[in-house]
Write a structure and sequence with these properties.
single chain; about 240 residues; Rossmann fold; Arc Repressor Mutant, subunit A; 2 domains; five-stranded parallel sheet; elongated
């Protein structure tokens, strides 16, 4: 199992220099992503599972410290390393407060950078293994919440609050553990519940739609058909 590293620096030559000098596979990093601003980095986090972050501090549109603060909130399992040209005490103090793994100053020796990234990769792997053990019962809690609120509006933020995770991290780990997105799982559970009601009760289709969390009968019928392959009325006539 390897880690995915995101390198963030507004200087393209700095990023390329790191790519050229580092033997990533030897230190347990199998995939590398790059970004050149905080905005671009956040987009990477939202579309890709990032295990390690190596970031500069001074960048336009948001500093590396701003980025780390966002990461610690949204992707708490990510291990963060700073590589900066600024030996500023205030920066270092803020980095410590944010729980940064290491604060490196440019220029850094190749061996030093590789050693820090190797240790960060090992730490990340240990964190992931621990979190996987902790998250197994969390999946059960998430599913139980969905089952218990199947007739209501179910919001990701509400589920995240219930299991004490950030919304973004909830989505990431649920997809990783189940293979389904949270929204797809909720939809499938609603339709399964609707099928049970269609088979076992005489409730009207409109009432069944409401009991499965759909305010609109037309939308319920459309979703049901997309999942089951027929309308609710047709399904009821076949069973």
């Amino acid at each position: 199992m390897g880690c995915r590293l995101l390198i963030v620096d507004d200087e393209i030559t700095a990023v390329q220099g790191i790519l050229d000098i580092t033997d990533f596979k030897q230190i347990g990093i199998m995939e590398i992503e790059t970004a050149y601003s905080m905005t671009e980095a956040v987009k990477k986090f939202k579309t890709t599972q990032i295990d390690l972050l190596l970031t500069d501090i001074e960048m336009p549109g948001g500093t590396g410290l701003d980025l780390i603060a966002w990461v610690k909130k949204e992707v708490p399992c990510c291990v963060c390393v700073i590589l900066s040209s600024f030996p500023d005490f205030r920066f270092a103090q803020r980095a410590i407060t944010l729980g940064v793994f290491e604060y490196l100053l440019k220029p850094v020796e190749d061996e030093k950078l590789e050693d820090v990234l190797r240790r960060a990769a090992v730490w990340s792997l240990g964190q992931k293994q621990e979190e996987e053990r902790e998250e197994e019962p969390l999946i059960g809690e998430v599913k139980a919440y969905i089952y218990n609120h199947i007739s209501e509006e179910i919001l990701r933020d509400d589920i995240a609050g219930y299991v004490n995770l950030s919304p973004a991290y909830l989505s990431t780990f649920f997809k990783r553990e189940t293979g389904n997105t949270l929204s797809d799982f909720i939809k499938m559970e609603r339709i399964q519940f609707a099928k049970n009601l269609l088979r076992k009760t005489n409730l009207s289709i409109s009432a069944i739609a409401q009991n499965t969390g759909y305010d609109s009968l037309a939308y319920f019928s459309s979703v049901f058909r997309s999942v089951v392959g027929c309308t609710p009325r047709e399904y009821r006539s076949r069973v």
